[in-house]
Write a structure and sequence with these properties.
Elements: E1 5-12, H1 19-26, E2 32-37, H2 44-49, E3 54-58, H3 66-77, E4 84-88, E5 93-95, H4 103-109, E6 116-119, E7 121-124, E8 130-132, E9 139-144, E10 172-174, E11 180-182, H5 188-206, H6 210-217, E12 227-229, H7 238-241, H8 257-265, H9 271-274, H10 282-287, H11 296-307, H12 315-326
Parallel strand pairs: 1-2, 1-4, 2-3, 6-10, 7-11
Antiparallel strand pairs: 4-9, 5-11, 6-9, 7-8, 8-12
């Protein structure tokens, strides 16, 4: 019996900080790794091109649109003839090193057309010894392609689902034997820049309230998921795989394209509008030689949102937040 092709679909924009780790680990199992590169300037294209399993396609849109980039990847994958299983992974996500030894991996390989597999994140903390994990949240990231299912379920410009998948519960399976390792938190400065970027993009695209955006994307969020010790068999080691995972991840860089994206677009908005956004941290201002033009009211608002982040579910804080939204924050 010939198994289906395993095809990984990955959008990339300046991911050189983690791309070697992603490509080295993903090449262990994928037949093809389709990368949609969006104008990378940090060597990501060159890194990707050096791996024989990579198919590089251009994402020419300079703006952020998750639905569009995933459709580009899916359409490219469907041009590959034969039975195939689509994996939707970002560049900072890899399968935990124990995946091949699990029953769930065999279920994926032996799945039938239309089957969908849901995964949990293991979000590795900066100490590289522990991880966060939600008790209940799974993501649909693998689809045994039927060649016709449209990419339409939970498709949006931000936080869009990555694969086409039907809503038939009889073909949904939940993977518990291994995890998708999320490496994003290994570089704390990058994570803070990414939080600013998400606030800005979600506001510019969807005009959500400043309060809601700050609560969702604050870099000072205290995660509520349980903390677990990181199992040794989750991590790729020199002894077993010939390389150490963490040696392939840049955890110390402090300048990122996220801030450049924001700064380039600031002139499109009035000072009054942009100063309401809770992105004006000292790190952002100083690293990019910006001037803080916020008035006292906005500074007080941002200080309140930052210092109450860990108490955002408190009934009093929720009431204040609701009031702030009513007065156009």
């Amino acid at each position: 019996m010939i198994r289906p092709f395993l095809i990984c679909l990955t959008p990339v924009r300046n991911e050189a900080w983690v791309l070697p780790a992603f490509l080295k680990t993903t090449s262990l199992w994928a037949d093809y790794i389709i990368i949609a590169d969006q104008h990378s300037t940090d060597g990501s294209r060159e890194i990707a091109s050096s791996y024989p399993k990579v198919i590089l396609v251009d994402n020419d849109n300079l703006d952020f649109n998750e639905a569009e980039r995933q459709s580009l990847l899916i359409n490219k994958a469907r041009k590959i003839a034969g039975d195939k299983i689509l994996f939707g992974l970002d560049a900072d996500e890899i399968l935990s090193a124990n995946f091949m030894e699990t029953n769930d991996w065999q279920k994926i390989l032996n799945s039938k057309s239309g089957d969908v597999f849901w995964f949990k994140w293991a979000e590795i903390r900066p100490d590289k010894k522990t991880y966060w994990e939600s008790k209940t949240v799974y993501f649909p990231w693998v689809f045994h392609d039927d060649g016709k299912e449209p990419h339409k379920n939970y498709v949006r410009n931000m936080h869009s689902m990555r694969i086409p998948y039907p809503l038939d519960e009889k073909q949904m399976y939940y993977v518990n034997d291994f995890r998708v390792l999320h490496l994003s938190y290994l570089n704390s400065a990058r994570m803070r820049a990414k939080s600013r970027f998400y606030q800005f993009v979600d506001w510019s695209l969807n005009k959500r309230s400043i309060v809601s955006l700050s609560r969702q994307y604050s870099p000072y969020t205290i995660k509520e998921e349980p903390v677990h010790d990181l199992p040794a068999n989750f991590i790729y080691s020199e002894n077993k795989f010939g390389f150490n995972l963490f040696d392939l991840v840049d955890t110390i860089s402090e300048k990122f394209w996220f801030d450049e994206y924001i700064i380039k677009r600031l002139p499109n908005y009035s000072t009054k509008e942009i100063n309401k956004l809770n992105i004006w941290e000292d790190e952002f201002i100083n690293n990019n030689h910006l001037t803080d033009n916020r008035n006292l009211i906005n500074k007080l608002l941002h200080s309140y949102l930052t210092h109450t982040q860990r108490h955002k579910r408190n009934i009093v804080i929720k009431a204040i937040d609701k009031l702030l939204k009513k007065i156009h924050y």
